[in-house]
Amino acid sequence: MNALPSVLGVVDYYEPWWVQIIKSVVFFALGLQMVPVILLAERKLLGRFQGRPGPNRVGPFGALQPLADIGKLAFKADFRPRTSIGWLFALAPIISIVTAAAAFSLIPFGDTVDIGGTKVGLYGVDVSIGPLYLFAFGAVAFYGIMLGGWASGSKYSFLGAMRAAAQLISYEVSQGLALLGVIMTAGTLSLTEIVNAQEGMWFIVPQFVAFLIFLVAGFAETNRAPFDLVEADAELVGGYNTEYGGARFASFFFAEYLNILVVAGITTTVFLGGWLLPFGIDPPHWVDPIVVLSKMMAFVFFFVWIRATLPRLRYDQLMSFGWKILLPLATLNAFVTAIIVVLHDNGTI
Amino acid sequence: MAEVVFFLAAIGALAGAVGTVAVRNPFYSVLALVMHLLSLALLFLLLRSEFVAAAQVVVYAGAVMVLYMFVVAYVGGTSMPLGPGGTRSMRIGSIVFAGVLFVELAIAILGTGLKALGTEGAPYEPGFGTPARIGELLLTKFLLPFEIASFLLLIAAVGAVTLARRRGGLHDAEEQRITPLDLVRPVSTGTMAEAVGTRTNATTRERTGLEYGGHSGRAGPEDGDDGERTGLEAGVAPGGDTGPEDR
């Protein structure tokens, strides 16, 4: 009956099927709820950075603005250009949002806890292949963008999708190599184990180079400024989602922000000790998700800050930076880490 | 549950494989191949080899097929549907080769006698298919094939670069290098910090009495500095000041 979940998980205890269903619902709802929050936070912060109030008309302090936006988008009529390819046009946003939600389930918000006699892991799924799962869904997510751009039958969409393709494969390599350093240091692929391995010292200290590389590549992967050439609005109108409107556009938009949360969550988990607190503070287990969420929100703030600060790169600069600086640096980091890990295991250091 | 997933994935894999060769539009052909590869990954997952499944998706669907799609979307697309091209002899040759391959595969599969069909299959041991186990095998039992395969990939990469260079594909004439110098440029040569007014040019401020100081981000080299500070701009007269009238 439950063959598939038990295949996916490395958990050494059995989670009843109803726990798994509740967990899926809770995690999806959590992601769903966080997107409007960071959307509002971003617009408010961008306003502050640029010396204007930001949204402040709908609801108290403009707090209902995301709700109004979503309502507007959801009730719009679906339309598509005559040159588009119908079923692919409709499929692309679905791929994007499904893969983003699947990647979100990887973020651990806490260790296994005992709730009313049932052991429940505070994560969607803890796979033995950890980050590879993330990259697998990242690979599939590419098709959402690519098909969206291609099936629109529009030059701007097509150019945006092409840029996305090149950017994604260029920076994914560096991202993977940066994570390799962490994985070698921790000696495991499971994300909860990686967090537990950071007891005493967060990996941002020994793996600082990897942290920087991962962060930069994360900006590129999520199409955020200064790497938002995929949807450079001055050149491409809106990139791959130019021809989209209504709920389909909302799906793309949603997936994009969910991906920001995923990058923030993975960075928190891998480099900032997940639910661990520094200085030996050991709060009860129910605090863990709050700690993780706070760290994620700090990253979201950083993302917005960068967006408000840095101008967009030129396309050739993006490519040459990715391949000629970031990739060699990531390779060197993995190489040096491997040597140090081996020497450490042999007792030389 | 497992049976349902198996049949879904198997149908997907077969349909994808047939679609790859049967569809005329190259873009759909690539999409069908992607579907085939994803279905195969699902089958690997049912065999409890998570690592192989993830590698299948990351490497094939994520890297190889992305490049295919890149090329097809740029070069081919809907405007150039694939036809039954080639000469008569080529068509006959392809049929012959397909037949030979079919016979070979049939011999290989049927030659085993299909003895395992009636059994439960190979037993599952904990730890099978994990990255640790696969890595151990690759570095011990299959070290030589592994190294040969990576060497082959290296040769292919070097060959691609060589071919591209021979055809004049790689010319780096107008290429602009990014160096760390871009980040630590001298004062008042148009750095970002100056553009937002956080870093000010002390000399200019003293001389012109400007409170907020700093140059605009647009400042070019000749708009820039006092000669004695950096001495970089030969064209600027010594002490050539950029007063407020420059802005």
Can you tell me about this structure?
The complex is a heterodimer of chains A (349) and B (247). Chain A is mainly α. Chain A contains twelve helices and two strands; from the N terminus they run H-H-H-H-E-E-H-H-H-H-H-H-H-H. A two-stranded antiparallel ribbon of chain A has the order 1-2. In chain A, a hairpin with a 2-residue loop joins strand 1 (112-115) and strand 2. In chain A, helix 10 packs across helix 11 (288-309). Chain B is an all-alpha fold and 247 residues long. Among the domains of chain B are: 1-78, NADH-ubiquinone/plastoquinone oxidoreductase chain 6, subunit NuoJ (Four Helix Bundle (Hemerythrin (Met), subunit A), Up-down Bundle); 195-238, no CATH class. Chain B has nine helices and no strands. Chain B has helices spanning 2-22, 26-46, 50-75, 88-110, 131-139, 143-166, 192-195, 202-208, 227-230. Chain B is extended. Chain B starts with a helix and ends in a 17-residue tail after the last helix. Mean pLDDT of chain B is 73; it is low at 203-247. The interface between A and B is large, with 39 and 35 residues. Chain B: Keywords: Cell membrane, Membrane, NAD, Oxidoreductase, Quinone, Transmembrane, Transmembrane helix, Ubiquinone. Chain B: It is a multi-pass membrane protein. Chain B: Pfam families: Oxidored_q3 (PF00499). Chain B: Its EC number is 7.1.1.-. Chain B: Residues 189-247 are annotated as: Disordered.
Please give a quick description of this structure.
Chain A is an all-alpha fold. Chain A is 65% helix and 2% strand. Among the domains of chain B are: 1-78, Four Helix Bundle (Hemerythrin (Met), subunit A), CATH 1.20.120.1200; 195-238, no CATH class.
Mean pLDDT of chain B: 73
The secondary-structure element order of chain B is HHHHHHHHH
User: Number of helix segments of chain A?
Assistant: 12
The percent range for strand residues of chain B is: under 5%
What is the architecture of the domain at 1-78 in chain B at the second tier of CATH? Up-down Bundle
Taken as a percent bin, the fraction of beta residues of chain A is under 5%
Largest sheet report of chain A: 2 strands, antiparallel
Largest interface: A-B, 39 and 35 residues
Give the ordered list of helices and strands of chain A.
Answer: HHHHEEHHHHHHHH
Structural class label of chain A: mainly alpha
Question: Which fold name corresponds to the CATH topology of the domain at 1-78 in chain B?
Answer: Four Helix Bundle (Hemerythrin (Met), subunit A)
Span between N and C termini of chain B? Answer: 73 Å
Q: How many strands appear in the DSSP assignment of chain B?
A: 0
Q: What global shape of chain A is seen?
A: globular
Briefly, what CATH class of the domain at 1-78 in chain B? Mainly Alpha
Q: What ranges of chain B have pLDDT less than 50 throughout 5 or more consecutive residues?
A: 203-247
Distance between the termini of chain A: 50 Å
**Radius of gyration computed on alpha carbons of chain B:** 32 Å
Q: Which percent range fits the helix content of chain A?
A: 55-70%
Low-confidence stretches of chain A: 1-12
